[in-house]
Specification:
The protein contains eight helices and ten strands. The protein is an alpha/beta fold and 282 residues long. The protein has a domain at 2-108 and 176-260: P-loop containing nucleotide triphosphate hydrolases (Rossmann fold). Bound molecules: adenosine-5'-triphosphate and magnesium ion. Adenosine-5'-triphosphate is lined by residues 29-30, 36, 38, 56, 58-64, 108.
Length: 282
Amino acid sequence: MSTSAVEHAPGHAQAGGTAARARALTKAYGSGETAVLALDSVDVDIARGRFTAVMGPSGSGKSTLMHCLAGLDTVSAGQVWLGDTEITGLKERELTRLRRDRIGFMFQSFNLIPTLNAVENITLPMDIAGQKPDQKWLDQVIDTLGLRDRLKHRPAQLSGGQQQRVACARALASRPELIFADEPTGNLDSRAGLEVLGFLREAVDDLGQTVVMVTHDPGAAAHSDLVLFLADGRIVDEMPEPTAEAVLERMRLFSGGQSQPQTPAPDGTPVTEATDEPTDED
Ligand SMILES: Nc1ncnc2c1ncn2[C@@H]1O[C@H](COP(=O)(O)OP(=O)(O)OP(=O)(O)O)[C@@H](O)[C@H]1O
Ligand SMILES: [Mg+2]
């Protein structure tokens, strides 16, 4: 059964309200024969003060969803709100300020400035905004991410994992209320990956921040409060209180059959039968 999903979108809001939300969010790239529908009328509520993971096959629209929710990309149709502010239709200047004040973004491709060293990269957004970093917090971020002895290195002098940690520190440095992280552990060894995940978890539990994280790793997703599953530009399922085993099993169901999109039940109950194909239950 399909619903209007206006009150109950996937990721349905908790008592704390929504940090970000989208209705009928559609994003197409290109036009005509070569057009790609990266997001197909997505409804989503990102609960404030919670850790949400986004999973799905390569090309399913995860990065596009993050960019549109963060106001980094324009939408083709639909609406996006950050908190109570609708950002679709906002003027570029207002949008820039809103992003700067409220959002930290860890890009899949880091987006570090090659001519700046690590600490300059970390504080760049605040420098641009004319804000003074909270030195105690900055030190905690730098030490937790193990960057203390790399602060004067430029990105080219850092390993992939170190660059990722700089990008992580940059997103956290200004203590944004909403952090988007696109595969933040993708280039890290398991120990560094766990530290970053622990850090994101603490940001939520101890500081009340909101985290949305794309990951391909069921173990990483298990650190979240809720997993949203994307396929072909639609949210096809969600899983509260995920465990690595349950996520892995869910992914196996996806890849085992056709990715026939399913709408979550109106009460938010996860849809568990994602495929038309019979699967082994033993
Ligand atoms: N700038 C662009 N121009 C044209 N098509 C694009 C562009 N960016 C993304 N796409 C297409 O939109 C779809 C969704 O891309 P997106 O980057 O959101 O996927 P993803 O789920 O993040 O994948 P991955 O796991 O590989 O990072 C893909 O089919 C991709 O080819
Ligand atoms: Mg991506």
